[in-house]
């Protein structure tokens, strides 16, 4: 069967939606499966951290020339034939099992005396970590908070159903700003509908859970959503996290301290931890392009010039879909201030954390492995607690603030 016919068959067999894409691809041992086991190592978005190196095929250039391929700027231009950018992101970037095992370890080391049950994922995006948290113990609850409503909805439609029947009753997803968490709105799992007018409770728990008022916003930009007032009661959190370098989205020191204060305020009085990650090293402070090839797509991390005065850069994530011959350029783009480890420690202490711990690992050298299976080497590298660490080409850190 020719390429064109194959593509037509593929399209005929598909309905809209990423799950169908995943199912179709299972026959091809596709990587587009959220249920596929992830590596035990954390995999923030830098391609050098991804696992599954064995799945790499021959190298492919992902330069800007199109080579006759169509280009999709973002998800909105995706056709039935295109997987969601969120699915591609989750597969390329995240390793929730690895993150959770470190979170548990940190909690038992620095707090101990009980198992952590209540989790908050700030800057949660599609809240993959939260849903994995719920899967690991039926007593567990999760709270997610993000500015990106589309990502939260995608979580409701694609990640929460994988948790099991009680999944949606154990997770609360909030749409809002981490700097103003009490202004955030609860998003609930009525398909395509947004429940609004509820604030994210801190550890002072709100009284009542239930829908109090529903109002349609038909005619507004949110016409697909219903906003419903309700109160919700949230247990104090054992762990709050901000992963995949999300704290770098905050550019001002005052905002970083304010955010850390909010995180501190929702932690349990019985003890809790805040955990974030950070990357750095010589390679993080200049222009850089890294790529990693999966059987069905190539993932590219593009780092713009680094401003040494503001310590800012722009990170863009691109995907090149092999079968569809499409490029999803700038699927995700972030303006980041690259904080230093001592700056983070100072801000955490200022926000009220009792102690701060650094866990580091050296990453594979980006000059040696810009786009080969060498990226998979990162998965064997373990984080070690450190009070001093010599500069490297690339490193990753977990930073643990103990309340
Ligand atoms: C690098 S992504 C991380 C997503 C996810 N946590 C992960 O581990 O892959 C950063 C996320 O932070 C969100 N974000 C950025 N600034 C925010 C803010 N001030 N408040 C809430 N979310 C924010 C973005 O919408 C995006 O989903």
From TrEMBL:
User: Residue spans with biased composition (Low complexity)?
Assistant: 35-50
Record field: compositional bias (Acidic residues): 54-66
| Disordered: annotated span | 1-79
Query: Matching InterPro entries, A to Z?
Result: SAM-dependent_MTases_sf
Q: Bias regions of kind Basic residues — which residues?
A: 1-15
From the Swiss-Prot or TrEMBL record, give the protein name.
Answer: S-adenosyl-L-methionine-dependent methyltransferase superfamily protein
| Organism (species) | Acacia crassicarpa
- Classification lineage: Eukaryota, Viridiplantae, Streptophyta, Embryophyta, Tracheophyta
């Amino acid at each position: 069967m020719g390429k064109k016919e194959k593509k037509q068959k593929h399209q005929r067999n598909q309905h809209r939606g990423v799950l169908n894409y995943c199912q179709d691809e299972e026959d091809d041992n596709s990587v587009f499966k959220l249920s596929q086991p992830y590596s035990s190592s954390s995999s923030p978005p830098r391609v050098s951290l991804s696992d599954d190196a064995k799945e790499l095929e021959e190298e492919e250039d992902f330069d800007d020339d199109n080579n006759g391929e169509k280009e999709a700027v973002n998800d909105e231009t995706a056709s039935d034939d295109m997987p969601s950018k969120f699915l591609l992101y989750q597969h390329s970037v995240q390793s929730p099992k690895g993150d959770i095992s470190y979170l548990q370890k940190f909690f038992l080391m620095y707090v101990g005396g009980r198992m952590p049950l209540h989790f908050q994922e700030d800057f949660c995006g599609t809240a993959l970590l939260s849903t994995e948290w719920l899967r690991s113990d039926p007593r567990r609850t999760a709270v997610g908070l993000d500015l990106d409503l589309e990502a939260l909805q995608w979580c409701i439609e694609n990640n929460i159903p994988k948790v099991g029947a009680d999944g949606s009753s154990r997770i609360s997803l909030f749409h809002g700003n981490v700097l103003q968490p009490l202004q955030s709105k609860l998003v609930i799992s009525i398909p395509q509908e947004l429940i609004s007018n509820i604030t994210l409770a801190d550890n002072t728990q709100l009284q009542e859970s239930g829908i109090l008022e529903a109002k349609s916003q038909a005619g507004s930009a949110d016409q697909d959503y219903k906003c419903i007032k309700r109160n919700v009661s949230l247990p104090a959190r054992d762990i709050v996290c901000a992963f995949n370098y999300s704290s770098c989205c905050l550019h001002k020191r005052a905002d970083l301290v304010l955010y850390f204060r909010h995180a501190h305020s929702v932690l349990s009085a019985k003890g809790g931890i805040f955990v974030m990650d950070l990357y750095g090293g010589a390679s993080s402070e200049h222009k850089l392009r890294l790529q990693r090839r999966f059987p069905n797509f190539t993932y590219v991390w593009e780092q713009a010039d680094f401003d040494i005065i503001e310590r800012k850069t722009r990170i863009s994530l691109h995907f090149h879909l092999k079968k569809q011959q499409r490029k999803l350029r700038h699927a995700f783009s972030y303006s980041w201030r690259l904080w230093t480890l001592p700056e983070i420690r100072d801000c955490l202490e200022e926000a009220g954390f009792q102690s701060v711990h650094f866990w580091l690992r050296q990453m594979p050298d980006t000059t040696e492995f810009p786009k080969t299976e060498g990226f998979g080497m990162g998965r064997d590298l373990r984080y070690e607690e450190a009070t001093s660490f010599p500069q490297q080409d690339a490193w990753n850190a977990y930073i643990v603030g103990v309340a």
